[in-house]
Predict the structure of Pectinesterase inhibitor domain-containing protein.
Amino acid sequence: MTTNIHLATVVLLLLTASQGGEAMARRMIGGARDPCSVSDFKVLCRSVVKGQRNVNAATEVSIRELMKRTIKAKETAASGRKSGGGLETCYSNYDSALDNLQKALNNIKQHDGFSLNINLSASLTDFDTCNDAMGGAKGSNMFAKSTSTLHEMADNCLALSTLVKQ
């Protein structure tokens, strides 16, 4: 008997949590709340999104900013890639990341959330690989620090994409 009561309590709690989560998602998708509240790097997200409440627009703005910074980082990596280290890896991965980010922008326009998440996940992997090649961006090297920021921005884009209207 007590097992049935415990099971019923767990089911009731799950249903309540599920309904609360759906209501919160609806409020966020409707633009009533800060889209960056779903991101791990909220300060960085808000500095890029700049008050945008529409999640599709916020995601697009974040992707475009990440692309701009990736292009700059690629130019920096190009000048030092012959010296070895992680710069060669980063240089080639930035091409792949830019391609995935461009596809992600197209996915937003096509209302294809599934492909959007795949392409943003792929770009995050590209930035992770670069970050690993630079020794985890723990060094004092300015380029290594920028790889960490690119990773954080890609992570924010992926978090925002979970709210994109389909």
User: Anything to note?
Assistant: DSSP finds six helices and no strands in the chain. The CA atoms of residues 17 and 122 lie 31 Å apart.
